[in-house]
């Protein structure tokens, strides 16, 4: 039987396991990336492992999330990351150089290689034919130390593209269409491979928009073939030597095939507060808009920005709209400047922000009370914008620019603007903002700069055979990591300070949770379907750990979050019968006995001591996961293994 692209890359990187879907596989990781909001923790963990120099082909530390520096905290963390990078063989991309995924695609991505990053949108690299995964910081630390990345072998979905996108219909609309079809949990357990004749009509940045948003499907990752378009992109980046063609075998088998005819798509929009709440732009036309934000790792490429600039050229934005534009990288920004497109953007009345995540992670630019914000980003979770009752809609750059001009949601195909943007054959490359590490012989002398914001991470606790604890919080379906551990300008600077962060844990759901959990000392959380979707932030496990959470029981879990829970030593149980969720009430005392035996058999019983009800739970773990839980988390397990 032939192989899919992903299966070929997995096969060539397989360290152990067999490639049958559902089994645990370990794969060699060629490259890693971190960003600063997860990076500080990842490097603290890496330091604990005692490995002097990274053992990957390329590791890069980006600073792109916390760039407000409203106090000493961010600046201190940046200096810490820069010094660790210098000492341990990691390239350091300075603040201002751009968003990790955009810069990585431009400067480091290589078809056929594996990449893990401490950011859930690392699959952006799939646009260039990389097998790229988002992971918790600890998994990235282990990979930097030369350890393999352990995942469950995914099943395969193929999306077969035919036709060609009409003007003003974009890669973002393709992403929204697949979200409409599959929903935010439809990709869980799958790698999504994009193929068919339609692929040829999409540029690398367009492909990257699509693989970037595959994260919102819950997919393990997404990937495109590597073809002549990929070669041309690498050539334009001065890296043609990194090109390698990649395609699936003609007889490769997929578990599911979805057909999308690009000709038939129209501009789409994801309505508040979930990326799969998709409607046509036409159906919402006329809705008043207060704010428009263009940028983020989904839509900040030169192609996106040139199209926006062409739409804004010679026009002025609506007086009732505030428009922000954040180009994805220094390369994009300087190309815009060289071509005069930057002047067109500035003249329109847009507010130019730096090349960073910015409003996407709530670092400023929160909308007004109850305001409608159209964003070219990938997530519109409740509260993420920083305004609790803000209404965030996800759209393409073209739809965003149309609304900025008219002040209302507008189908860009109706504006009669001509935007035939020609992409250059060569990009202006300048890596002066990427600082290489010290040579090995000088590494010893490099001092690590630790600021007072860096606090010790919480001690994990080995799983015990019996657990008795209160059900401290019961939440519903699709709880995101933004619910569990919110981000935003007020909180994000404290990503290396777990005790401080803990005050905000589950703040969106129940502000009393942190205090109650801390007082109880030991507790259990109950969730619905797809618990922990969204970000890769391991803080969504480390903070509950600090507050004494010992177990989470849910109908199902998101991939990265369940790995982070296990890595933190918090045991994740799944309801055998989803309906039993209804039988548990917040405040009940729960008892689970025979945990070790249950971990071996995959089944155990929970007793709700308060009402006497018995509920069967599933807990099937791999041997390695059991060992991690028994050791009290991945760090203890790895340190023990390394002797
Ligand atoms: C996000 O988009 O939510 C983030 C911020 O990039 C996160 C990482 C983080 O929480 O630091 C992600 O997607 O993994
Ligand atoms: Fe940054 Fe937003 Fe992308 Fe996360 S989704 S990496 S916050 S731009």
Structure description:
The protein is of the alpha/beta class. It has 3 domains: 5-264, Aconitase, domain 3, CATH 3.30.499.10; 268-411, Aconitase, domain 3 (2-Layer Sandwich); 467-487 and 497-641, Alpha-Beta Barrel (Aconitase, domain 4). Helices cover 30% and strands 19% of the residues. The protein contains 22 helices and 27 strands. The strands form 6 sheets. It has a 7-stranded mixed β-barrel, surrounded by 4 helices. Strand 9, helix 6 (171-182) and strand 10 (190-195) form a beta-alpha-beta unit. Alpha-methylisocitric acid binds at residues 37-38, 65, 119-121, 134, 361, 487, 534-537.
Please outline the helices and strands:
Elements: H1 5-13, E1 14-16, E2 24-27, E3 31-34, H2 36-49, E4 58-62, H3 72-88, E5 91-93, H4 100-107, E6 114-117, E7 131-134, H5 137-144, E8 149-152, E9 155-162, H6 171-182, E10 190-195, H7 204-213, E11 221-223, H8 228-236, E12 256-261, E13 268-270, E14 278-280, H9 281-284, E15 291-294, H10 302-312, E16 322-325, H11 330-338, H12 341-347, E17 351-352, E18 372-375, E19 391-394, H13 397-406, E20 434-435, H14 440-443, E21 467-474, H15 481-484, H16 498-501, H17 513-520, E22 523-527, H18 539-546, E23 549-554, H19 559-568, E24 571-575, E25 589-592, H20 595-601, E26 603-608, E27 614-618, H21 623-631, H22 634-641
Parallel strand pairs: 3-4, 3-6, 4-5, 6-7, 9-10, 9-12, 10-11, 15-16, 15-18, 16-17, 18-19, 21-22, 22-23, 23-24
Antiparallel strand pairs: 1-2, 2-8, 5-20, 13-14, 21-25, 24-27, 25-26, 26-27
Bound molecules: alpha-methylisocitric acid (MIC) and iron/sulfur cluster.
């Amino acid at each position: 039987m032939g192989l899919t692209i992903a299966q070929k890359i997995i096969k060539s990187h397989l360290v152990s396991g067999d490639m049958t879907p559902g089994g645990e596989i370990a794969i060699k990781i060629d490259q890693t990336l971190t960003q600063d909001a997860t990076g500080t923790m990842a490097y603290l963990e890496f330091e604990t492992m005692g490995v002097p120099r990274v053992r990957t082909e390329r590791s890069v530390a980006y600073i792109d999330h916390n760039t407000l520096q409203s106090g000493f905290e961010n600046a201190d963390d940046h200096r810490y990351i820069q010094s660790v990078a210098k000492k341990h063989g990691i390239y350091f991309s300075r603040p201002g150089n751009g968003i990790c995924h955009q810069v990585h695609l431009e400067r480091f991505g290589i078809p056929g290689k594996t990449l893990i990053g401490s950011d859930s949108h690392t699959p952006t690299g799939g646009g260039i034919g990389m097998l790229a995964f988002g992971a918790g910081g600890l998994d990235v630390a282990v990979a930097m130390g030369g350890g393999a990345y352990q995942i469950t072998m995914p099943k395969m979905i193929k999306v077969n593209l035919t036709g060609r996108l009409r003007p003003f219909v974009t890669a973002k609309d393709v992403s929204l269409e697949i979200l409409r079809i599959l929903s935010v949990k439809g990709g869980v357990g799958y790698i999504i491979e994009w193929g068919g004749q339609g692929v040829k009509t999409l540029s690398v940045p367009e492909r990257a928009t699509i693989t970037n948003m595959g994260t919102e499907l819950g997919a393990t990752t997404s990937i495109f073939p590597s073809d002549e378009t990929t070669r041309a992109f690498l050539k334009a980046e001065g890296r043609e030597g990194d090109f390698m063609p990649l395609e699936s075998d003609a007889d490769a088998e997929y578990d599911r095939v979805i057909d999308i005819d690009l000709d038939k798509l129209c501009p789409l929009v994801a309505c508040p507060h979930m990326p799969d709440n998709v409607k046509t732009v036409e159906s919402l036309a006329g809705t008043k808009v207060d704010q428009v934000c263009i940028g983020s790792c989904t839509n900040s490429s030169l192609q996106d920005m040139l199209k926006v600039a062409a739409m804004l050229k010679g026009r002025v934005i609506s007086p009732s709209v505030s428009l922000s534009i954040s180009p994805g990288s220094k390369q994009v920004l300087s190309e815009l400047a060289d071509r005069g497109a930057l002047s067109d953007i500035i003249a329109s009345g847009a507010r130019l922000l730096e090349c960073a995540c910015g409003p996407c992670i709530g670092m400023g630019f929160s909308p007004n009370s109850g305001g409608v914000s159209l964003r070219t980003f990938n997530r519109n979770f409740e509260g993420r914008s920083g305004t609790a009752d803000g209404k965030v809609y996800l759209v393409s750059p073209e739809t965003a620019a149309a609304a900025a001009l008219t002040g209302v949601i507008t189908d860009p195909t109706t504006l009669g603007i001509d935007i035939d943007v020609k992409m250059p054959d060569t990009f202006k490359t300048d890596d002066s903002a990427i600082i290489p590490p010290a040579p090995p012989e000088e590494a010893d002398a490099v001092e690590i700069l630790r600021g007072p914001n860096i606090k010790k991470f919480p001690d994990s606790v080995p799983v015990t055979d019996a657990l008795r604890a209160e059900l401290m919080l019961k939440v519903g379906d699709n709880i995101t990591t933004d619910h569990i551990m919110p981000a935003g300008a007020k909180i994000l600077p404290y990503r290396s300070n777990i005790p401080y962060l803990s005050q905000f844990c589950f703040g969106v759901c129940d502000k009393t949770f942190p205090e109650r959990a801390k007082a109880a000392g030991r507790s259990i959380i109950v969730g619905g379907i797809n618990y922990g979707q969204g970000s890769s932030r391991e803080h969504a496990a480390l903070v509950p750990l600090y507050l004494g959470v010992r177990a989470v029981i849910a109908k199902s879990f998101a991939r990265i979050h369940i790995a982070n829970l296990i890595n933190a030593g918090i045991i994740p149980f799944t309801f055998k019968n989803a309906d039993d969720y209804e039988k548990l009430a917040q405040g009940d005392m729960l008892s689970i006995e025979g945990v070790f035996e249950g971990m071996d058999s995959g089944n155990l019983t929970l007793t709700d001591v308060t009402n006497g009800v018995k509920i069967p739970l599933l807990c099937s773990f791999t041997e390695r996961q059991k060992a991690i839980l028994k050791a009290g988390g991945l760090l203890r397990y790895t340190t023990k293994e390394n002797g």
